[in-house]
Amino acid sequence: MPELPEVETVVRTLEQQIRDEEILKVTVRWPKAVIGDPDVFAERLQGQHFRSFGRRGKYLIFGMDDMTLVSHLRMEGKYYIQDPSEPLNRHIHVVFQLSGGKELRYHDTRKFGRMEIIEKDPDLSDFHDLGPEPFDEAYTAERIREYCRGRRAAIKSVLLEQQLVAGIGNIYADEILSACGIRPGRSCARLTQRDRQNIVDNTRLILAEAIKAGGTTIRSYTSSLGVTGMFQNDCMVHGQKICRRCGHEIKVKWIGGRSSYYCPVCQAK
DNA sequence: ACACTGACCTGCGAGC
DNA sequence: TGCTCGCAGGTCAGTG
């Protein structure tokens, strides 16, 4: 599911719904959803309140009273707020019973997502080795140049590396390169300074638009509360058959272990 | 150090 | 209908 805009959407919706609610009880139904001992996890969170809601890259950051709860949704993780009377299905792995009477439920069909308790108010600057946020001034053409020094990997693969800039995933990498007129398979060593500046500018433009649209919905993804992102309506290449700029057939190429969509005409090289 | 692969999981649609 | 295969928005460990 989620890249930066989707995670941002989840953060905002959850803040509206459960801010300052107390956790009465935590049930971990699939132990591997939690890093560390699930019993300790559940015990420590009992009595804590959801005080702040943030994001770093694709990580959700919940500020509790005495600790920080970090959650990564990976491919398919999502949070739902449901009435306890609603039946639990087999994909709900963690249940937080809340003081307001509802439950916060973590749902993850592929079981890739993880959550973890870490110290209160962590230093997020070098959290998980993440690069700057896309809207941080540290994300520049110059940074891309330095980062790619001595490397020849495809620019598409490089954009997916969270150490360069945090939050870009497969969909937005394709969309950013489409907006720049750069083929995903182009070596990062063969970018011009103008290309790098274009990448920075379009990263911000596209992510900002996507956040405004509430994220992207592909296949069955909906964020918490059934909020459905609409950005897929704006995708120029990813998941498309025909280029929405020129009408040419979209190509799909396997790059760095991911499928990459591009228009061979608009993305000349 | 870099680049690539497999592993982690389940479900869905395509093709036979 | 029922099977197998390939694929899915992410990240990390392991291999040359």
- The poorly predicted ranges are 219-223
Q: Which structural class do you get from the secondary structure elements?
A: alpha+beta
The number of distinct β-strands equals 10
Integer tally of domains: 2
Shape: elongated
Helix content: 10-25%
From the alpha carbons, calculate the radius of gyration and give it in angstroms.
20 Å
Q: Kindly state the mean pLDDT as a whole number?
A: 93
Main sheet strand line-up: 1-6-7-5
* Assembly of the depicted chains: single chain
> What's the CATH H-level homologous superfamily of the largest domain?
MutM-like, N-terminal
Account of the protein in words:
The two termini are 29 Å apart. The strands form three sheets. A four-stranded antiparallel beta sheet has the order 1-6-7-5. It has two domains: 4-125, MutM-like, N-terminal (N-terminal domain of MutM-like DNA repair proteins); 141-262, Orthogonal Bundle (Helicase, Ruva Protein, domain 3), CATH 1.10.8. Strand 6 (92-98) and strand 7 (103-107) form a beta hairpin. It has six helices and ten strands; from the N terminus they run H-E-H-E-E-E-E-E-E-E-H-H-H-H-E-E. The protein is of the alpha+beta class and 269 residues long. Helix content is 25%, strand content 20%.
